[in-house]
Amino acid sequence: MANFIEKAKDYAMNRRSFLGLTAATVTAGAAALTLPGCGLTKVDPTTAAANLAQKEGEWIPAACWHNCGGRCSNKAYVVDGVVVRQKTDDTHPDSPDYPQQRGCNRGRSQRMQAFGVDRLKYPMKRKNWEPGGGKKELRGKDEWVRISWDEALDIVASEIKRIQTKYTNRGIFASNAGDLGRALSLAGGYIGSWGTSSWGSWRWGPEKFGMAEGFYIQSINDRMDLRNSQLIVIVGGNAAWSAPGNPTYHYLQAKKAGAKFVVIDPSFSDTVEILDAEWVPIHPGTDHAMFLGMAYTLLTEDNPSTNPLIDWNFLNKCTVGFDKDHMPAGADPKDNFKDYVLGVSDNVPKTPEWAEKISGVSAAKIRELAVQIAKTERVALLTAWGAARIQNSDSWPQMFMTFGAMTGKMGKSGCMTGVSCHYATANGGPSLVTVGAAGLPAIANPIKETINDIEMWKAILEGKYTAGYQNVKDVNIQMIYHGYESHLQTRSAQSMGIEAHRKVEFVLSVSHFLTTNSKYSDVVLPIITEWEKVGGFGSFINRESLVFWRQVTKPLYEAKSELWIAQELAKRLGLDASKILPIDEKQQFYNQIAGCKVVAADGKTMEPLVTLTEADIKEIGATGKPQQGRISYQELKQKGVYQVERKPGDNLGFIAYEDFVKDPAAHPLTTASGKLEIHCQALVDFVKSKGFTEIKPIPTYNPAVEGYEATFKDFKAQVKGDYPLQVINPHYLRRSHSILNNIPWLREAWPNPVFISAKDALERGIKEGETVLIKSSHGKTLRPAHVTECLTPGVVALPHGAWVEMDEQNQVDKAGSDNMLTGPIPTGQGIGGWNSTLCQVEKWTGEPLVEDSKWPLRIVL
């Protein structure tokens, strides 16, 4: 950090609207980190900080917009146009029933992002760019040249027109188009992408057999009812890292109420430690096999009279496909789940011993846990998405549901089965307070073609992509546009992605920083952060809260909004630019506020939340009618958060599937049978339609392409292969996905090593802190090793999201970018294998890595 401080001490902004002296009253260093910009003059940051300390300021609700699942309350203290410090929710006393919406270390470092010295300040182009690409091989390592907005927009418009003429609009690929996609759609469209980097196989499949995917809809009970659970089993979830804020606090309340926790995971995580949970270590991607072993235990040990372990009433009443007597209409009775587990259908009984060989969990533990779940009256069976971010995992969610159905752990107080993840971790149910729609009408993309995320880079290089079952289409992509998602960073086959970026004729990105997307582009356009926008609301907050924010600073440097860029681009393309923004940002902001709803006293209907007067509407700069709500706009504007107060026994609780379980006929699910489908033809048809692989209608175990079994060249003889280790990608407190990876404070606090078990390190002669090479058949990366006893042997944990930093000479990434190790292997529903990647780890013989916190930031111009 010191070298950045010295560099920054020479500069200061000459306009008060720039909040460049952020944290100046705390330390001169923190202030200096935010100084470089336009209109610079020398200043003494210590003197500036002292002057600010004498003045009165205002707390402004500020956005914390990143996709961590928290989206907590964040406030900036602004003095004379300068952000002095931040704080989080203090709008009411904190309690377990009515907790504050507190931010984490990432949200508290937000000012380092909004005012970072490495913010992109001006439009830029590659030095060696020319129409048609120029020296394309220099993408990612070329110098940058500052250009004007007029020149930048002229270049972009000219390249779009040229590519349209030469290749048609099918030559344009937008990995995530965002607001600029409005202009591209008006101009004739583009080929898009589809897939998920988070849900894994929970994204689309569960609705086919009757479960919720865990984001838009939940199938777990709310946090108050979680306290009624006696046993809480968590599969592959580390809320302490991946869902900061209140989720772990909610788990703690259940523990205080008497619940015992069991966590099935390859790592002994902070969540395991905080909850004093029993840790069941497991090989990544083998949870399905373990649960089959538990199902076998229940089937062979159940006796309805003397040892009742299976809830036969639930199975017979609420499911189809468990046994031959309860199959859906038209299905072959032989294709039932019970016979599959017992080995009747394939001569392979799914015994605990069979499961042990795959999962690494002892047969004794499999039997013990199965019986413990079955005999405990109130059990919460919870899983995060991580266990489903596995190739060939399409049947895993169905297996998880099936085991919950076998034990009847659904639809009752203290009993639940489903996803506990992201913003809804430990707290399922419909929202009690909602935000209004902005009202900006969509512009349809005339081109309906989309390419799966896992296949997109390969498609660009090879000119073909899978469009469906037995349907491979030719494609000739010559322009890549990167919107608000970091697809080159966060999607599979990154090394192939870099190659694809060096093949096409034009690459455009919009960004706040020189991210991986932008680094490999030809033209980069600087965009404003949420702190520079009019205002808005955090999306997907926990069900009881609404987080509001307003503008902290005017747009910095020459950064523009994506909608402004889209408008200007539309003009140059000869389009009707008025269609881009028929409703301005202030009106959209007002629409969101006016449309906010909160649950009424009856616990069911929704009523207006915000009181708006004519003066309020005028202040916002919009048009609309005054309205009466629960709180005033001025109160919301000052507090920045509204939360529905909960109490035990209130009428706001949620028990998933409660009505269905009580009377399935009167409250059918949306499946073909109206029940939970253990035999589900709709899932089979859906997976098959994607054109990658096929599955059975019951949840059979399908080994991942690069899963545990593939670490062996001879699995039966237990002879390891060239890549004997499995990689998992935990979400890490240094960043949210890939965002915030450049923040110096977070780099210092979270050094981003590769975690390796003590056993594996000893076998390779690796010591703590040594630089190691992690290699797969797809790519290579370097990291300092952190040797730990908290990881299952055979597993290495490489935190998700580090920005790639290629050593071009050695063709190895130095930053620990997880997707350097993944490949273009789409299976089932097009799910990536982030937690089923094979690797080898060995000592690095080159120059050891310097700590990330000492790396220079990507400061351009």
Low-confidence segments: 1-41
Tell how many strands the DSSP assignment holds: 40
- Which strands sit side by side, in order, in the main sheet? 7-6-22-21-20-8
**Percentage of residues in helical conformation:** 25-40%
Measured distance between first and last alpha carbons: 19 Å
| Estimated radius of gyration | 27 Å
Query: Main beta sheet: strand number and arrangement?
Result: 6 strands, mixed
In percent terms, what proportion of residues is strand?
15-25%
Shape: globular
Task: List the total number of helices.
Answer: 29
Class of secondary structure makeup: alpha/beta
* Mean pLDDT figure: 93
Secondary structure blueprint with pairings:
Blueprint: H1 2-8, E1 12-13, H2 28-32, E2 40-41, H3 45-53, E3 58-61, E4 75-79, E5 82-87, H4 110-114, E6 124-126, E7 144-146, H5 149-167, E8 172-176, H6 181-186, E9 192-194, H7 206-209, H8 223-226, E10 231-235, H9 239-242, H10 247-256, E11 260-264, H11 270-274, E12 278-280, H12 287-301, H13 312-318, E13 319-320, H14 337-342, H15 352-359, H16 363-375, E14 379-383, H17 396-406, E15 416-419, E16 433-434, E17 450-452, H18 456-462, E18 464-468, E19 471-474, E20 479-482, H19 487-490, H20 494-501, E21 506-511, H21 516-519, E22 523-526, E23 535-537, E24 545-550, H22 562-572, H23 585-594, E25 597-599, E26 606-608, E27 610-611, H24 614-620, E28 631-632, H25 633-639, E29 641-643, H26 658-662, E30 676-677, H27 681-690, E31 712-714, E32 719-720, E33 725-728, H28 744-749, E34 754-757, H29 758-764, E35 771-775, E36 780-788, E37 795-797, E38 806-807, E39 812-813, E40 837-843
Parallel strand pairs: 8-20, 9-17, 10-11, 10-14, 11-12, 13-30, 14-15, 20-21, 21-22, 27-28, 33-37, 34-36
Antiparallel strand pairs: 1-2, 3-4, 4-5, 6-7, 6-22, 16-25, 18-19, 23-24, 24-29, 25-26, 31-32, 33-40, 34-37, 35-36, 35-40, 38-39
Helix pairs in contact: 5-22, 12-15, 12-16, 12-17, 15-16, 18-20
